[in-house]
Amino acid sequence: xxxxxTMFDRLDGEGAFGAFLMLGDPxxxxxxxxxxxxxxxxxxxxEVGIPYSDPVADGPxxxxxxxxxxxxxxxxxxxxxxxxxxxxxxxxxxxxxxTYANLVVARGRDAFFDRATAAGADSLxxxxxxxxxxxxxxxxxxxxxxxxxLIAAANTPDETLGRIARLAxxxxxxxSRAGITGTHKAGEFDxxxxxxxxxxxxxxPVYGFGIATPDDVRAALRTGAAGVIxxxxxxxxxxxxGDVEALVRGLKDATRERLATAMI
Length: 264
Fold this sequence. Notes:
The active site is at residues 47, 58. By secondary structure, the chain is α/β, with parallel strands linked by helices. It has one domain: Aldolase class I (TIM Barrel). The chain is built from 13 helices and nine strands. The chain has helices spanning 3-11, 28-40, 60-71, 76-89, 101-107, 109-119, 135-144, 158-167, 191-200, 214-221, 232-239, 244-255, 257-263, and strands at 16-22, 45-49, 95-99, 123-126, 147-148, 151-152, 172-175, 205-208, 227-230. A nine-stranded parallel sheet has the order 5-4-3-2-1-9-8-7-6. Helix 2 runs parallel beside helix 12, helix 4 runs parallel beside helix 6 and helix 10 (214-221) runs parallel beside helix 12 (244-255). The chain starts with a helix and ends with a helix. The relative contact order is 0.17.
């Protein structure tokens, strides 16, 4: 089994908690420390962004993190080095990259995928890649040994969910609302979307967008989702000098409540 499958199997009904950080923010050395901090806090999986000047899905908090990393001189090559270092320190924790198509194409699609795999990444989510254009990308990712992660939403048509189920690996990234990350608008966690993904045979659904508090975690997991990913709240806490490890620990604790309730 790959690291995602092993993780979900280990959790055995407990929700997975994913922590997002922007690679190189505020600089490579401190970013490596933050990556270690989220694991100490209990993150089951890590999602990392590659800093990009023109993101379409990221809100102001994560955009600012990308700008800080770029201002520090961080480029894609250093991002792969950070992933490789993390993989050495945490050999069992799944790592997914979130990026944009321009960064992949600029490096060469196959070269990017091969380098991601060599660094120890487990999955790749290209945020601006539509599902109908994804087949050749997903095929190339799999050939390189990396899981293609695709995005699903409540308004995604059944035909597209079927395509996602056929192409995706690792997990399915479920967005809880329209818009961008980190806008403080509450997520709307749709049980019907989770059920439709299960029926289509898609990889485990994991909710992102709108995950900032333990109550958000609980609401997402009540849909039957396999896990959650929190980004902006973690990135903001780090930028403000707060205790990232403690924040993650509190959010992770909320994922255990579903399992505890089921055992009563």
